[in-house]
Write a structure and sequence with these properties.
By secondary structure, the chain is of the alpha/beta class. The protein has six helices and seven strands, in the order βααβββαβαβαβα. The strands form two sheets. A four-stranded parallel β-sheet has the order 5-4-6-7, with helices on both faces. It has a three-stranded antiparallel β-sheet with strand order 1-3-2.
């Protein structure tokens, strides 16, 4: 027996599935061509996927692996991670070469978009900290909500993990110091400009 998908889609999600603009979905609702399944407490429309299954193009969910290293001198380790993930049976491997403290990784963004788009069946990592140094538990929680299973291939890293953690701490201190000094510099400039604007020239 075929199971129906009763997951709820927002206006934007349904628009993306149907390949139209969000404004078009709202216009169709006003014209009676579409009917939302329910309204949220905030009065937002929600649509049941099963009601539009005949219109939505089916996409196969795939298993994705994610690999990451912090610096260019770890490229060999990155290739090792990628090969390990491929050997584990991942359909696709996404990788990043950037610090674990950086949340703006292009590969990570691509991964999250795929998970949010419900096209991922499983996420495989060689080590849990390859995803993020801090905050990975939140990503794992969202994966659970989207029925994405998590697989960690190896035990926590030893010396390599500690070495990279030291690098991340140094990076964090450097960024913090730069922002602190930048803020102080900005305040000093503002104070100087204020002093100059308030000064009255003495006539001859």
């Amino acid at each position: 027996m075929k199971r129906l998908d009763f997951s709820l889609l927002s206006v934007g999600e349904l628009a993306a599935k149907l390949g139209v603009a969000s404004a078009t979905i709202r216009r169709w609702c006003r014209a009676g061509k579409l009917t939302e399944t329910l309204r949220t407490v905030g009065n937002l429309r929600r649509f049941a996927s099963c009601s539009f299954s005949h219109l939505i193009k089916k996409e196969e969910r795939r298993s994705i692996g994610y690999a990451r290293v912090s610096s260019h001198d770890q490229k060999s380790d990155l290739q090792s991670q990628i090969q390990r993930l491929k050997d584990s049976g991942c359909d696709e491997v996404i990788s990043d070469l950037v610090s674990g403290l950086n949340c703006k990784k292009p590969g990570l963004k691509k991964l999250l978009e795929a998970i949010w788009g419900r096209t991922v069946s499983s996420l495989t990592l060689r080590h849990a900290d390859r995803l993020l140094r801090f905050g990975k538990e939140l990503v794992f929680y969202r994966c659970k909500q989207f029925n994405v299973s998590i697989q960690i291939l190896d035990d926590p890293e030893g010396e390599a993990f500690e070495t990279e953690l030291v690098k991340d701490v140094i990076t964090l201190m450097t960024v913090f110091s730069a922002r602190l000094y930048g803020k102080r510099s900005w305040k000093n400039r503002r104070a100087l400009e204020q002093t100059q604007s308030n000064s009255v020239p003495i006539g001859n």
